Fold these 4 entries.
Entry 1:
Amino acid sequence: MGSRKNEVENKSNQEILSELKNPPSPINLHLYQPPRLLNIDIGNRTGTIFDITGQTVSSKGFNYQITTESYAPLINNQILADKNISWNLYGVTADWLEINQPELIENLKKQMEAGAKPPVGDTYLHIIFPFLSQDHKDMLLKISKTVYKERWGVEPETVWLPESAVDSQTLDSLAKNDFKGVHLREHQTYGSRGNIQAVSTNFGKILAISGHNYLSGLVGFDKPWADTFFDRWHQEANNLGFAPRISIDGETLGHWWKAQNGVYEFTSYLLKYLKEGNEGKNLNFNTGEIFDARLVENTSWSCMDTGLGRWKGDPNCYCGLPENGWQANQIRSSKRDLFEKLSESSYRIDNILDESQSDWREIYKEWFLSQRFSLAKGLPISADFLKDKALEKLFISAYIRDLGWTSCGWFFGDVNGFERQIPANSLRAIAEIMSWPDILPNS
């Protein structure tokens, strides 16, 4: 570890930036939909763990809707190919597109062949990384890098973490797995200035590519005119002494902010202003000196109260909760119950596997990769290649656990919400498979 750290630490911050083949863009779009259907096959029985597809007699489901409204226009109109935009497309979502809308993935590849930048890296599954063990983090990053390289033909340079949730161990894993930069929001680092900073880890420095909280939020919540927004962006750059970057959910464009309400006109004009300026005003994103910064531990872009309490049921977190105190406490209690029991099941599964088969993570990683397109198609996940039935149960339980950690399962403030079945039903399935009744959720 020491020699690798020294090799990177001896480089200047500017040298680390210069190693990026694709420097950060002014705007990053986070494109992601959760795994919406999980079926498993174990003991000659097939069952559905969760189904949040939204498919009905009259609807093909949420993924099709969001693709039609957002992903297809962003891709087909070459918005994602614009030099002022970077984007990440989570592996589990890209797999779904590759099965159900393959022409969109092919279009992205053609745009890359014509000179467009490859996407920012991802973690394949959308899990709050600070909740995972170091070994678990490393395994998921290896999975995500394998899928990324297979699909796009290059190695990822930077990464967008789920909900941008981060701690020092997460940065260690990123640096250890050769990521050169991580996209965060401005409140997640301190002790420095600029829209790119350098943070030290136990495996060398990593670049923190910072997005501006207020400006990023304006796009989704205020739906502004492009000239008004660009003027506000320019004012903020003058106040800060540098041009801040912005980062938003890609689905904001087209899905949450509809085409008929002017979102694509806004996008077109904003990209024009970034290229040409507007009324004599320009934004310069050339990076000057890159200063060292420190990480603010256990933060995200989605929990502004306690950093990660949105998923843990922290008593001082009010994110997405109703004003009624009794209802809010009921939701916190439900979240805390799910978080603690999934944490306990994770510990048990990993501990048993560590004791019974030391190399299980490498076997699991290859098996997980083999199941990718079954997940995308909604086909049952099976580990019957394992002749040891106890090991088969553990692998299936580990897989359910990994999908059960999907962040949107806790995101919204509704005990009986649509997405809540992801962690709740995952716990019910693991409890049945492993005969662990104490991890059954309370609701």
Note: The mean pLDDT is 95.
Entry 2:
Amino acid sequence: MILATQYFVQTAHGPMPADCIEQAALHFDELTADGVPVRVFKLEFDVETNAFETAREITGDFAERLV
């Protein structure tokens, strides 16, 4: 199994994995509309070795779409 990019929408109750940015955005939008505090993270893996490369928080990118 090769993971190129994974997204996680983190809540106080645990992470919600998402296979694509659109799914992460849907989770984010639904949770924030319900008043649930969330953080979104993007994890990237090497496509040849499947080794972990980077992780960064992208919550601000999602929040900017709602302004």
Note: The helical segments are 21-33, 59-65.
Entry 3:
Amino acid sequence: MRRLIESDIDFLVESGFLYLPLLFDPAIEREIQGTIDPSKPSETTGYLIEIDGKHFAKTLNLSSLVANCEKINKSLYDQKRSTVLQKVPIKLDGGTPFGWKLITIIFEIMPYFIKKNRGFKRKKFGRQEILKLIAEKVDIPLKNYERSNTFFDLRPFQGALKELDKLDATFVLPQDGMISSLELNNWLYKALEAQIITEERTRLEAEVLKREQLIDAVKEDLDILLYVAEKGSLEINGFGFVRVGKGDDYLIYKRSGEYTLKDYYGRSYLFPDCRVAVPTFNPLKPVVIEKYKHPFLYAHDSGQEICLTGFQPPQEFSARNIIQVLEEGFNALLHGYDARRRRGYHSLDDPRQYVKTVEFDDYRI
């Protein structure tokens, strides 16, 4: 394993800080004489210490060095973390990806986009109404998902926590005084291992708590929710989602249906249906899933980001953020084009000052 401190010099430790020896230099010597009383054998000035005629300069906080090791030397950090994890392996048998993002989509985002109409107000579906609607739209076979799905088995995590408790996570700063580079590296390795053990314990405890809360939240609706999770996709009344990869990430979309836009001369263009989507991972920007063309899309291709002037996408997944981004993209396609200002990458008509790269003549009614 590579050393974190690549040096063979001796250091000084004082009150949790690492001091480096100052090399002889006349300018440094003159500055030192103005800050340290030579009549005293040793004096701490805050940044300079003199011991046995040698001067040491204050540099790093040792606790901060350990805490930021991942940024300073990521390869070393990863090696040490891999060594710790080998002592506490978590054996999972796979199973259906299932997590909070799916629950958020079904119970918070979906009700916003498929509101029910009653009288003059549009009301959201409640939890049981959403589940009933899914059951009506999807043929769900009877199955004991709880026993077959490893998401609900907390024993591997609990076992790993017990193994972590057996490891030494004690963090003690080195004693004040001189310390060799070898001794410093050995201390850093032990301190880094203690930190990683603490981090992994915190991470696993949080994962167990999250799963316990999720299990408690869905225990009465397992058949429906786990079927949706296993299938990885669902669409109801033009709103839907499809899993991306093997985890708990999705593309959440809303269908536009056919719509018309007008050019500068008042001519109408009929645009086909498309799915405006937002991923549950960064960047949270609206895209069009299908191969599609529009003045706010750069080319005639699939998976393109929608041009939104001045829009700052949020950084974290939440129901509110996903709804905001999805509506921004949806409204931009259907209502954002201004034939007079001609904002976007293209215009519907063909002004001479623009180089035409995407044609819309086939959409003209």
Note: The CA atoms of residues 259 and 271 lie 5 Å apart.
Entry 4:
Amino acid sequence: MFGKTITAALLALHALAGIASAQDAKGMRGSSSFYIGAGTQRDEGIDRSDDTPFVLGFMHQPANSRLIWGADIAREGTMLDSTYGRTRAIENGTSYNLLVGRNFVDRGSFRLDAAVILGLRETVTSCHASYLGYRCYADRSPDTEYRGNFGVMTAVSYDALMIGMRITEESAQTLVGIRF
């Protein structure tokens, strides 16, 4: 599942980068960023995931606009997993998020951006066990339940280096990225 999540994240980010570069090809010079991050769970406890949350994301600011949009995929919060013969195993859930924000300071090589994070996060995945050793009965996909995921993000950039902070109801993460 972890490998599929990373592959889906990279494909989504590649598509978003293609949209941004198509705008640049039309002469509309914008600003884009790729970032990664890691941090801590916001609510730790006996029934919470101990795994380190991480995120992979993309942001873009269209030319002649202060609007910023983007997307990220994160492993954060707690998901109860009842697949592969497990019963309510505790893992990080995957969240799929959109970012909408604004550029507040743009002084050439120095920038300050902030965005609101809105998305969905996996909370439960389960299926009927297969008698043949497959993941689920009759090799069906597991049923997954989702919950809303909300937060904020802020980033400071100097030339091509971006650093920032991403805080959701489930985790707090430090971000490092490149701006192009």
Note: DSSP finds one helix and eight strands in the chain.
